[in-house]
UniProtKB/TrEMBL annotation:
It is an enzyme of class 3 (hydrolase). Residues 8-169 form the Calcineurin-like phosphoesterase domain. SUPFAM superfamilies: Metallo-dependent phosphatases (SSF56300). Hydrolyzes diadenosine 5',5'''-P1,P4-tetraphosphate to yield ADP. Keywords: Hydrolase. Belongs to the Ap4A hydrolase family. GO terms for molecular function: bis(5'-nucleosyl)-tetraphosphatase (symmetrical) activity. Its EC number is 3.6.1.41. The lineage of its organism: Bacteria, Pseudomonadati, Pseudomonadota, Gammaproteobacteria, Moraxellales. This is bis(5'-nucleosyl)-tetraphosphatase (symmetrical). It comes from Psychrobacter proteolyticus. It catalyses: P(1),P(4)-bis(5'-adenosyl) tetraphosphate + H2O = 2 ADP + 2 H(+). It comes from the Bacteria. Pfam families: Metallophos (PF00149).
Length: 278
């Protein structure tokens, strides 16, 4: 199907009012246009429930698609009792809603990696330098299969997706350790070494001092067949635009704005509304 316009939108974080305002700015028409979301649909914004409902409805119409972010995975984990609801995440209304199970069953079946067009690839946090895009797609499918499996297998997976320390990637990595490492690359990564070693404590902007030997994952120059579109790193304010990578988290929930990147010409449009402070 051909579309009038396709837009890739950074982390919504439940900023429902800003999201609706952005759709007006885009003159979005679900009959002609398509939205792609970079994950983290929910969490710190004022209305995660209606944000999730709206995105789900558009996806089911074929007018939108999303990848999963770390906050989305956490929402699924809380739903299944594998994690506790954090006070700073304003998602309690989702678990109190009559359609909670329907929403979360839909959410867990969304991809980790997607191809918005022939020139781009969409993930939440990024793709590490030691993976090609094709290799990354294969690992994404492995994690997706686990997330979309029966509830017994899902409940075995979810408690094993979380660790304060990053796992080293190696040729023999397997089992839940492998699934956790894959999830960390796709949904938590900011800094890494060239071999893919991760560092979780840094979330500031690029002008801040970084741990020795670590760089933003996109600064390791490796050949890419597609431009990587990503969110997750709010401190970048969507200002990174390289030949091989484009940041899209404008940090709306932190007092900035939502960003929409128009495929085809690369034009970036922003919401004029901000999210109430978290």
């Amino acid at each position: 199907m051909s579309f009038r316009h396709q837009y890739v939108i950074g982390d919504l974080q439940g900023c429902y009012a800003a999201y609706l305002q952005l759709l007006k700015t885009l003159d979005f028409d679900p009959a002609q246009d398509k939205l792609w979301f970079a994950g983290d649909l929910v969490a710190r914004g004022e209305d995660s429930l209606n944000t999730l409902r709206h995105v789900k409805a558009l996806c089911e119409q074929g007018a939108a698609a999303t990848v999963l972010g770390n906050h989305d995975l956490n929402l699924i984990a809380v739903w299944r009792g594998a994690a506790k609801l954090k006070n700073k995440d304003k998602t309690a209304s989702i678990f109190a809603a009559d359609d909670c199970d329907e929403l979360l069953e839909w959410l867990r079946r969304q991809p980790i990696l997607a191809y918005p067009d022939e020139h781009t690839v969409l993930v939440h946090a990024g793709i590490p330098p030691h993976w090609s895009i094709e290799t990354a797609a294969g690992y994404a499918q492995q994690l997706e299969a686990q997330l979309q499996s029966n509830l017994v297998q899902l409940d075995q997976l979810l408690p094993n997706l979380y660790s304060k320390e990053a796992d080293d990637w190696h040729a023999g990595i397997e089992g839940f350790t492998k699934m956790r490492a894959i999830a960390n690359y796709f949904t938590r990564m900011r800094l890494c070494k060239q071999d893919g070693s991760l560092e979780f404590s840094f979330s500031a902007g690029l002008d801040e001092a970084m741990p020795t030997d670590f760089l933003p994952w996109f600064e390791w120059q490796v050949p890419r067949t597609r431009k990587i579109l990503f969110g997750h790193w709010a401190a970048l304010k969507g200002e990174i635009d390289l030949l091989h990578a484009r940041a899209l988290d404008g940090g709306c929930v932190w007092g900035n704005y939502l960003l929409a990147y128009r495929l085809g010409d690369g034009k970036v449009m922003t919401s004029s509304a901000q999210c109430p402070s978290p």
